[in-house]
Amino acid sequence: MARFLSFYMLRKGYSASSIAPFEAIKKQFSQARKVMCLGKNIEHLKAASLAMDNKSMDPVIRYCAVGRQLGYFTYLTLESLCFLDSAGIYKFRSSKKMASEAARAWFLGILFSIIGGTYTMYKVNEKEKRLTKTIAEGKVESETLAKERQAIVTQLISDVCDITLPATSLGYVNFDEGVLGLAGTTSSLIGLKTVWKKTA
After folding, report:
1. Phi-psi region of 152 (alpha: psi -120 to 50; beta: other; left: phi over 0)
2. Contact of 104 with 169, CB cutoff 8 Å
3. Residue 75 scores a pLDDT above 90
4. Which distant-in-sequence residues (6+ apart) come within 8 Å of 128 by Cβ?
5. Torsions phi, psi of 14, nearest 5?
6. In this predicted model, what pLDDT tens digit does every residue of 112-164 receive, in sequence order?
7. How far apart (Å, rounded) are the C-alpha atoms in residues 32 and 46?
8. Which of 41, 120, 159, 188 has minimal CB crowding within 10 Å?
9. What are the transmembrane regions (predicted)?
């Protein structure tokens, strides 16, 4: 949200002093996010290992899950090193290259998530076509598939929003700060809603 507001205020001609607090918030939240993610890369490495060992899973979904988790593992590992550099704890000569490779790994992780989600949606649609909705069991399964589809669509929207950031950083697309701010806000709200549902 701070990213979008600073962009909006800049476009509207607000003074630098008025925009400065939002720029500061953006930078501080970025650093705080990196701190909170320290060590989380191990969780993704473990998840990749579990997905690889799950032979009962659909092969396409399994390999997409492995690709997603390894992408996130690499991204968070490199982000941790970039944090050490930006915080002045340990300076790396190749910090810019690490940041670029972190963005690339993040992009690939999200891309695997989008491919996996799209494929899962296709499988859900195919399964629903074969249902006999006049039978009680069929109605129950239809409702289950509808909930599954809703969860998939929500995740796909979040992934599409998230991928705009590394895609822009890598030069694959050229979204401005306003679009990136709105995309980040949308993804964050989806994440908060998901967490809220789990605790409700």
Report:
1. alpha
2. no
3. yes
4. 142, 145
5. -65, 155
6. 999 999 999 999 988 888 776 555 556 778 888 888 999 999 999 999 999 99
7. 24
8. 188
9. 103-122
